[in-house]
Amino acid sequence: MAYRVGVVGAAGYAGAELVRLLLAHPDFELTAITSNADVNVKLADVYPAFAGETDLVFTAHDDPVLESLDAVFLAVPHTAAMGMVPGLLSHGVSVFDLSADYRLDDPDVYEAWYATPHTSPDLLKTRAFGLPELYAEDLASARAQHVAGEPALIACAGCYPTATSLAAAPALRMGWCRAQSLIVVDAISGVTGAGKGCTSRTHFCSADESVEAYGVCKHRHTPEIEQILGARDRVIFTPHLAPLKRGLLSTVTLQLDEGAHALSTEDAVRAYEEFYATSPLVKVLPAGAMPSTSSVVGTCSCQIGLAVDKRTGVLVAMAAIDNLCKGAAGQAVQCANIVFGLDERRGLPLVGMPV
Ligand SMILES: NC(=O)C1=CN([C@@H]2O[C@H](COP(=O)(O)OP(=O)(O)OC[C@H]3O[C@@H](n4cnc5c(N)ncnc54)[C@H](OP(=O)(O)O)[C@@H]3O)[C@@H](O)[C@H]2O)C=CC1
Ligand SMILES: CC(=O)N[C@@H](CCC(=O)OP(=O)(O)O)C(=O)O
Q1: 205 is catalytic
Q2: For a tag on the chain, would you pick the N or C end, based on fewer CB atoms within 10 A?
Q3: Which among 212, 199, 117, 219 has a CA at the least distance from the CA of 158?
Q4: What domains can be seen in the chain, in order of their start residue?
Q5: Hey, whose CA ends up nearest to atom 29 of ligand 1?
Q6: What ipTM does this complex have?
Q7: What pLDDT score does 1 carry?
Q8: Which residues line ligand 1 (CB under 6 A)?
Q9: d(CA 344, CA 354)
Q10: Whole-prediction pTM value?
Q11: In this structure, how many other beta carbons lie within 10 angstroms of the beta carbon of residue 220?
């Protein structure tokens, strides 16, 4: 039996990626796609990549059919999502929210970073955090809710927090890092990370042939990364925009504790391989190999590379993902697979284009 699902915000970049994945998924029947800007327009007229594959037509974001579905994926901006989630849940629809609205545990932290009061803070206590490799228990609870006939709310992790945390969390959880030390994150994203709308920063003439830092010391993903890593006020996060369509590389520098100074790169690789032994979407590369965005673009895989610098006593942990896939749509489908009792890889592309 196929589960009936919908995508709200399907004309946006993350929404269109959801459509790509869901149309190819054997267990989900994509029943509704919404866009207010393109209502009554055929999907293939907006994204010619879908020509000949589907006759789906956009309906409005408040299409009542959404309330009858098994699950809805929300690919709308933060603040818009929290206007929709309580209503969908009240109709028994599970929600996979790609926005930041339900990611932060503390509504005051949300208000401080998003300049908007949270309108359904109670849901923050029961939502699952959608980063399966690091929040298996949350996803198991969401699965149990589904089995019990209750709708689940999954707050899918952000793109930068996903790559950064997959790179850094094992070292922190295994106790390798010096207590209270700073965690330095330099990350690079392709321009689709900024969504479909064009700004002076993302305009071709600004973004092409240039790499620039932005949001320095004030990016809204900082508290999300700190929450996942359990490192409040210790993350220095510097995102950069690069002239790529898709792809995100996060390079994290972690100060090793004296007890971990004997660690070699090979030891670190072995320990990370063990940490991710039951996480099929994460590929830990051998010592000396470097993750690259080109290897993961179009896939839901995350490649991790590691290097220990004995001279300075740091671990450099790097993770490459496709911001639209493992960083957004693919991770949402991975979470849905788990909630609906399917193999977490079901329907997800895992091997990129070799060249
Ligand atoms: N792009 C990325 O790499 C990632 C994105 N995300 C998150 O996914 C969500 C979508 O991002 P992205 O696809 O990049 O954004 P886009 O700007 O490309 O698309 C946004 C979509 O949201 C809809 N929308 C805009 N405003 C509203 C509103 N007020 N109420 C309801 N719907 C609205 C638009 O609908 P319409 O068609 O009517 O204009 C559009 O379809 C965001 O929350 C983003 O933070 C998460 C991780 C990575
Ligand atoms: C390149 C670029 O501009 N990226 C976006 C982040 C991507 C995103 O969609 O944010 P969420 O993961 O929180 O949804 C930014 O820096 O705001």
Answers
A1: no
A2: C
A3: 219
A4: 3-156+326-339 (3.40.50.720), 159-323 (3.30.360.10)
A5: 80
A6: 0.98
A7: 77
A8: 9, 11-15, 35-38, 61, 75-78, 80, 98-99, 158-159, 192-193, 195-197, 323-324, 327-328
A9: 23
A10: 0.98
A11: 19
